[in-house]
Amino acid sequence: MKEYMLDLFKKTYGSSDGVRVFFAPGRVNLIGEHTDYNGGHVFPCALTLGTYAAVRKRKDNKIRMYSKNIAKGNIIERNYGDFSVTNKNNWSNYPYGVVWALSQKGIHLEQGFDVVYYGNIPSGAGLSSSASIEVLTAYMLREIYGYKMELQDIALMCQYSENNYNGMNCGIMDQFASAMGKEGHAIFLDTAKLEYEYAPVNLENKKIVIMNTNKKHNLGTSKYNERRSESEAALRSLQTRLPIKSLGDMSAEQFEEYKYLIDNSVNRKRAKHAVYENQRTIQAYNALVANDIERFGQLMIQSHESLRDDYEVSCRELDILVAEGIDCKGVCGIRMTGGGFGGCCVSIIDSEYVDEASAIIGSRYEKAVGYKCDFYTVLPGGGPAEL
Ligand code: GLA
Q1: Which of 61, 152, 381, 382 has its CA 20 to 30 A from that of 131?
Q2: What is the fold, at CATH topology level, of the domain defined by 206-377?
């Protein structure tokens, strides 16, 4: 991949002398969905799929960016300090947002740079291609400009950038999973305290299989921000009587006792999901540590039902994959993963049934939806690195 990136750089900018190549991963969330901005737990792992960059400092203050993933894309050029958000070349707002966020932290780049990006995560699939390009950009700039920033602070800065530069009020999960990934492990993260444990993913005779609906989650941002406001409104209703900081502070029993405080029935459902999903995530972590994959799989299915019925972030395509998956021999657990409204499911399947289950689910999906879904068997990968 290093050679490929150097070659791409040379084709784009003329020479590849002094160019360095970096990588940052995408992520898949095993369980704990829409809990990160509700002060709950999440349980993602970084993937071996991700985004690559070949980069070189310039002598002037120009910043040039090119993405191999954009068909017929051009080199995008700006002067350092032009921090306007552009509608054209939308993708460049993610890495450029990071340059802006650095400047907000008082880190000003004294020279510009040339960069080419290439990612092998399907975009719009809910596998955090945006977090991976953000973390990659912060990491590579740290390495080439030599400023100090811990990986966890890189994650926080990238979230800040996505919230404030890109207008997506995301939680910390994606950037954290990308920046803090560890090969062979999932990250059990308490988003309220930013405390985490790495849990080995020893599935023995089972595999993690991602199923991509190939329906892009285009409406994602506005619906996502809406869900976040609904959860916050529910929290405010509960806070009229309870000294809680977030929905993640509540047990299921406590929620049942006090849910009457939330007058709005939609907001009540949103809060129910956030509270129960957080509890499920803690149980799923314990199940994985105890090697009880059956239990883990059941919790995944309950998670999907809650996202579908109470949080209402699923869609027909995701529901079809889950319904077909549950019916298939060898499938231990399956659920939508990421923000929702399209994107992917994550499943755990007995190794010997992966092919059979994929063939059955794939053909039933195509029949019902009219186009194909894709399957990827994935492994938990490490964090950002120089190649
Ligand atoms: C998106 C956001 C994350 C998280 C998930 C849902 O991926 O970026 O912060 O909220 O949705 O769990």
Answers
A1: 61
A2: Alpha-Beta Plaits (3.30.70)
